[in-house]
Design a protein that fits this description.
This protein is an alpha/beta fold. It contains 5 helices and 5 strands. A 5-stranded mixed β-sheet has the order 1-2-3-4-5, sandwiched between helices. The radius of gyration is 13 Å and the shape is globular.
Length: about 120
């Protein structure tokens, strides 16, 4: 089934809403589409709101380095990602750790949408 998602440009932020069951292919496509939207709107701020039915698989969480490289995510993109499903949080946090340890992301993971929005609004 894969992840389903919507991408909207709202108030100078690319907002992503993702649900379903994430797999390598659908997550990779989602990030390609996010970066395409960033380019089209000349916007580097991304707010992700995910409520996946299941957590990422371990291999897919670790593979986020390759997923981000393939999609064109750069350190210029500022990403606040909110994982609303507590059962999926730990694997999303592993993906964040992989990306942060490799210096590949200017972003943070949140459990709460308001905290994610506040962090993203700081813009610095």
């Amino acid at each position: 089934m894969g992840a389903q998602y919507t991408i909207d440009h709202i108030n100078s932020i690319i907002e992503v809403r993702a649900t379903g069951v994430p797999d390598r292919q659908s997550v990779s496509q989602m990030w390609h589409d996010i970066i395409e939207a960033c380019t089209a709107h000349r916007c580097f701020s991304i707010l992700g709101l995910s409520n996946f039915d299941l957590p990422l698989k371990l291999a897919d969480a670790i593979d986020h380095q390759a997923i981000f490289l393939e999609a064109g995510v750069t350190i210029d993109h500022r990403i606040a990602w909110v994982q609303l499903n507590p059962k999926a949080y730990a694997m999303t946090e592993l993906a964040e750790t992989v990306l942060l340890n490799r210096g590949m992301v200017n972003g943070r993971l949140f459990r709460d949408e308001l905290k994610g929005r506040r962090w993203l609004d700081k813009r610095g």
